[in-house]
Amino acid sequence: MLSLGLGTSCALFICATAASGSVDVEQAGALSFQAKSLYQSARYDEAERLYKEALAIYESAGTDLPQGVVPSVLNNLALTYAAEGRYPEAESTYLLAAGEAACESAGPDAALLANLADLYRLEGRYGEAEVIYKLLVALASEDRDEASLATFRNNLGAVYFAMGREEAAKPLFESALAARDRMFGPDNLESSGVLLNLSHVYAREHNFAKAHELGRRALALREAGLAADDLKLAAAFSNLAEICQSEDKAGEADALYRRALAIRLKKLGPEHPDLAHDLNNLGVLAQAGKRYGEARELYARAAAIWEKALGPDYIEIAHVMNNLAVMAFRQGIMGTAEADFRRAIEIWARHPDREIGKVAVCLKNYARLLRSTGRKKEAGKLEAEAENMLRNDPANWRDKYTVNVGALK
After folding, report:
1. Which of 108, 142, 172 is the last residue of a domain?
2. Last residue of a domain, one of 74, 108, 142
3. pLDDT band, residue 99 (cuts 50/70/90)
């Protein structure tokens, strides 16, 4: 059996617990069922409380429990933490669930592994997510589980897209979409997420007509099938806004981002990481419109949210710092610009699965600053490194190149 290094010690939860008399285990099941319903309604704090009450009952019950009960509740609790943006707690709880499954000699199931991979993707830990998704694709193929295979291919494609590997992502999205169309029929709600993903591929290929077609199809499906404040509808607004932004349709993009932001603020609160993406993108629009004070405020809010939830080295913070650096450079605030460029590059240097194109652009931007301040030799080194990154195969670049932070000193 393949080991994923999930830390499956048997001294975790139920395995080390002694029986302590009769306990209403059926009540725990009812609490867990109710918690799942609350989770689906985005009432995460209430769901968390009930899952914890169910776990306390199971803990008192000792070892005489049906197989898989405790790992399932732990998995659901971890999902709740992840939905709240509490990613470190989510990860530790997923690993606890994996440990419980190992104690029961069952091993972590595909759903638990998929949730863990989803978490790593949200955290920008793309290499770790890729390993798990590839395993899940192989297992689903072996079991001929078409529904799971479509899901895992879509999610693996999302990882590749985030890494800048569109050539690997696109066929996975297309395969997932074809499978869901076969299973559910064309223009079904189940396909909306894949449509959104494919729309971004076409936008990056500058096929904006196709990108808009797919993005609007996905949005129409979600508007017809979901509540007006559903978080999946917010995702559709945000994704379509990104396509509009790529086409320089600033007004339309701004309105869509704000619709997404309003839903997320209502459902998730002001400090959830999902809000940071919309705030950052609104900052980009404000910067393009030379509304620098507004842009700086939006970037600062986004970076603060990400840093609180995910730490100072979260990969999206590098994008914010690069944007801030470019803005400061254009305003002639050279000291601030250089510090922001350095921080962006130093963050990217800690992420071996970062998107090569964005790193190279940042290096070129910093090189422009160095040339403008008479440091031509340092600038030339960064320009050469950026060109090497862009010239070589993105699928293999991680084994060949690292960002030379020492060249910045």
Report:
1. 108
2. 108
3. confident
